[in-house]
Amino acid sequence: MPASQFWILIAILAGCVSVGAAIWLYAWVHRQDAGSEQAQEIASWIREGATTYLRRLYLALTMVAVGLGIIIAIVFSFDIEHLGTEAVEVNPLRGGELATAFVIGAICSAAAGYMGMTVAVAANVRSATAANESINRAFKVAFYAGAVMGLAMVGLAVIGMSTIYLITGDPEIVLGFSFGASSLALLAKAGGGIYTKTADIAADLVGKVEIGIPEDDPRNPAVVADNVGDNVGDVAGMGADIFDSYVASTVAVMLLGASIFAGDATQQAKYVMFPLILCALGIVASLIGIQFVRVGENGKPGQALNRGTIFTCVIFAGLTTAVVILGGYNLGVLWATLAGLITGVVIGLTSDYFTSSDNRPVVETARVSDSGAAINIITGFSYGLISIVPSIIGIVLATLISYYLAQRFGMSGIYGVGISAVGMLSVSGMIVSADAYGPIVDNARGIAEMAGMSQKVIDTADVLDAAGNTAKAITKGFAISAAALTVLALFAAYAEVVGTRGVELSISLRNPVVIAGVLLGAITPPLFSALTMLSVTSNAFKMVEEIRRQFHERPGILAGTEKPNYAACVDLAAQGALASLVLPAFLAVVFPLLVGFFLGPEALGGFLGGSIFTGVIFALLMSNAGGLWDNAKKFIESGMYGGSGSDAHKASVVGDTVGDPFKDTAGPSINTLITVMSLVSSLFAPIIAAFHLF
Amino acid sequence: MTIHLYLSMIPEALIASMLTPEEFGTYYAVGSQKRARGQAIFCEVDPDFRHDFFRIEEGIRRCVPHEDGSPKRSIYISVYRVLEHVPLDVIQKLYLVTQDGRVLGLDSSPELPTETTGLHLYQEIAPVHPRVVSTLGPREFYELIVKTPTSLLSLPAVCFVELKLGELAEDPEHGAVRDLPYSNIDHLRQCLVELKTKTVHSKMVDRIHPASFAYRLIKNGIFIGNEQQLLYFPMLSQEELRTHHYRWWRSANM
Fold first, then answer.
1. Per mean pLDDT, which range of A134-148, A217-231, B43-57 is the poorest?
2. A462 to chain B nearest CA, in Å?
3. Is it the case that residue A83 has pLDDT exceeding 80?
4. Which of B49, B77, B106 is the last residue of a domain?
């Protein structure tokens, strides 16, 4: 058996083990005690809300996937790029393969999201119930549920990519898989982000500000929608986001491998397969690393999560070193992998620095808050801007180190850059497990609150929740950096694909068409951010009206004698989120094509460059500033600078509300936006190379 | 249905109601249509209490159920100079109501809080409600303004609460603010410093301050005094509140 085929089978096997482990954990979580009748009832409201939203989202996505699949099948059945130069060949098989890969990509991403979210809404009540027993037990339930998402995601991605490559032997077909996953990710992430902040802001504005009831109070009609939002935004959304980067970076490197080593079949097979091997090793490392995530009776959950991540990285580094040396791979790819891996962890930790209440940015923002909301916002925004610097330096270092070290060992530098992205994302199984844990314990706390569980449960849930917030901050920084490197790899892949069609890209800033492309690309992330955040405000406004209506018409709700109509708010959030996706999706898919077909491949190259630059900056700024404002408020609530009810607290609440759509709607969705635009460009590159006005 | 008499401190009023104290507290804070919000402090008064100053019998006669059978929520008997006309031995229990209508009942204690060193901050609740800093402990403060006034200012009865000053009690100039949410903290510090440097017992910090305040700031409890006696309603400990009155505690910490 050829080595490449052996490794494909190993990758598929690793994927199957990962999915198998996810299924086992899924069943394990469901076997845990679901608690009292009241807690189960509250959990069922969240479950029903989440299921309703997912059903609607996936129905909409099915229509999008089928529509786009048909277009892809038709367009790519023709050898269009040779139109006018020679006879156009009709090859329905290729179009069919690409369309099928696209649909499978969407299905795999949806399946991982569905599995992750269904286990999350089952685990929240079980974790709250287990908190009554011990923190160790509660942590285990929540983390294992998070691991379902992490392991299912990487497992399905590797099975999908490997199987398609095994059958077709063509990385460009695997690109279809990636495009399918990214299309779904964009809608899931942006939709989830709009949903979660619509519910959160509306619940806070009426509940806390107007009526004066605490967070997670069961009298608030939006409280269930708020909890559902945590799941659709942070579990399904973030999972889809990293799934998208994970697949896109792997495919980009497969394409680069196919293109760079086009003249040598043995080397080509070896280096096209290498990113899949890294994925398989990442799965093995994550499966082992997860075993190290344990909390003792008085242990700290945050330390347990960090320990798991560090062990996973070390194991992955060891396995990669062994495979590179024993498999006779160029040492340049090893250094590139390690550069990406280390950079990912370091960038994640810098995000934590800027958003943790142990450090100066949050403390300083909290301190100045007693001078008013304006000062709070200016300070938080400024630190958000500063937070871009270390991450960008990290990306720059990863890019340069991987490029030049790869070259130093006689390897293509740009292949090294792509490999560094894959290296960073290979441990996604562990990273996503830790990230998905966050919203589960957040919900567990909410359920404990609503069900009137004991003080011990609430205190335990608070400790677990604090660790979840840190994991979330780290994952956001990680996801953005990974997306940045992925898009750089995709950009290179785009250039290679265009190059194979005889168009040598010259992205010169002296070319007005390129400048036009750069500027058009640069406006896309801000415009996308504005569209998603405006959707949040308009949907939140509608929900505020609904909450007011319920309080107004049914006084028993506030008196605690009547149950609010939670479903009405859940429906409003779901409908609003899905309806709001049309324009952002259009922007992501159609805008690059318009630029490509009208201004040409060089302008599209400039467009991708422009969108990467502003996209990464906006994503980092919004995610970090939003997290910083959130934690500045929590810091004050912990009893600093006057505590709850002080002028500083009132100002910090304004900052937190501004930051909410920054950090949970627009910021994290930009990753997916730039990935989708790069994938669309790469996929349609051959056609754009053949047909363009300029 | 039983008719209760309630002595409200915010605002000062005597009210007859068919609601239990918990129901009355919720109603009083957020209204019958639940469209209002506002902190309330009231005491349950012996239903047999009568006084020439108040037309209690008339109020009780008018306190009848609604046509649909629901209880009468409130009949205001008096809203003027109420506290000074209610003898303290008819006061039963004191209730603290959060702005969203959660009710906490406090029993009175024969023991006054232990004297502590340092400066004091008092929020007068009724009949007037300035915020005052003082060198005097709660008993001396009450005696100064009710029993043996040394200035022109005196009241026939008073309801007040001592609020936390944290490190400012000992070191008003440099003490850390931490979780004290007072507005214009520099002015508060200045007032406290003046107590240390001038020969005055008390100084008004804010003459138009609303009577409401954050319950989490209560240092020891609520005091109600007239010329005859001083009642003290000690506040429950944080631990007790979190363990046994979690919903109230959450609302109070908003």
1. A217-231
2. 14
3. no
4. B106
Q: Calculate how close chain A gets to B129, using CA atoms only, in Å.
A: 20
In this complex, the residue of A212, A559, A646 whose CB is nearest that of residue B99 is: A212
Q: Is B174 on the interface with A (CB under 8 A)?
A: no
Cβ distance A214 to B34 less than 8 Å, yes or no, reads no
pLDDT category, A88, cuts 50, 70, 90?
Answer: low
The partner residues of B158 in beta bridges, in order of sequence, read B225
Domain around B126: 120-235
Is B138 in the same domain as B51?
no
Q: Are strands B103-106 and B91-97 parallel, antiparallel or unpaired?
A: antiparallel
Interface probe with A: pick from B179, B185, B246, most Cβ of A within 10 Å? B179
The Cα of B5 is separated from the nearest Cα of chain A by a number of Å equal to: 22
Pick A214's closest partner by Cβ from B34, B180, B254.
Answer: B254
In sequence order, the 6+-apart residues with CB closer than 8 A to the CB of A278 are A250, A320, A337, A419, A422, A423, A426
Is B168 touching A (CB cutoff 8 A)?
no
Q: pLDDT digits over A615-634, tens only?
A: 999 999 999 999 999 999 98
B253 is a domain residue: no
A584-613 CB burial, b ≥16 within 10 A, e <16? bbebbbebbbebbbebbbbbbbbbbbbbbb
State the number of CA atoms in the 13 A half-sphere of B254 facing the CB.
24
Instruction: Report the pLDDT value the prediction gives residue A124, as an integer from 0 to 100.
Output: 93
Closest chain B residue to the Cα of A454, Cα to Cα: B243
Tally of domains in chain A: 1
Per the structure, the count of domains in chain B is: 2
At B35 the pLDDT is 57
Q: Among residues A584, A454, A628, A324, which one has the least CA distance to residue B244?
A: A454
In a shared domain, residues B19 and B61:
yes
Token readout for A314 is 């070390």
Alpha carbon distance B163, A154 (integer Å) = 56
Q: Determine the residue type at A440.
A: I
B250 is a domain residue: no
ipTM: 0.81
Helices (H), A261-372: 265-291, 301-326, 331-355, 360-367
How far CA A616 is from CA of A296, A313, A674, in Å, comes to: 39, 24, 9
Instruction: Please give, rounded to a whole number of angstroms, the shortest distance from the CA of A639 to a CA of chain B.
Output: 4
Higher pLDDT, A38 or B168: B168
Same domain, B136 and B228: yes
For chain A, which residues lie within 8 Å of any Cβ of chain B, measuring from their own Cβ? Answer: 208, 211-214, 217, 370, 449, 452, 455, 458, 551-552, 555, 557-559, 639-649
- pLDDT, one tens digit per residue, over B126-173 is 999 999 999 999 999 999 999 887 777 889 999 999 999 999 999 999
Interface touch A644/B99, C-beta < 8 Å: no
Say whether A644 and B246 touch across the interface (CB within 8 A).
Answer: no
Does B157 reside within a domain? Answer: yes
Q: What is the DSSP string of A207-223?
A: IIIII-PPTT-TTSTTH
Q: Which of A458, A555, A644 sits opposite B181 (nearest CB)?
A: A644
Q: CA torsion angle for A261, A266, A272, A273 (degrees, to 10)?
A: -160
Structural domain range at position A537:
3-690
Q: How confident is the model at residue A82 (pLDDT cuts 50, 70, 90)?
A: low
Answer yes or no: do B217 and B135 share one domain: yes
pLDDT at A53: 87
Closest residue in B to A219 (Cα–Cα): B100
What residues of B are in contact with residue A647 (Cβ under 8 Å)? 181, 183
**Is B253 at the interface with chain A, CB within 8 A?**
yes
Residues B38-60 pLDDT 10s: 889 999 999 999 999 999 999 99
Nearest CB neighbour to A551, from listed B26, B34, B101: B34
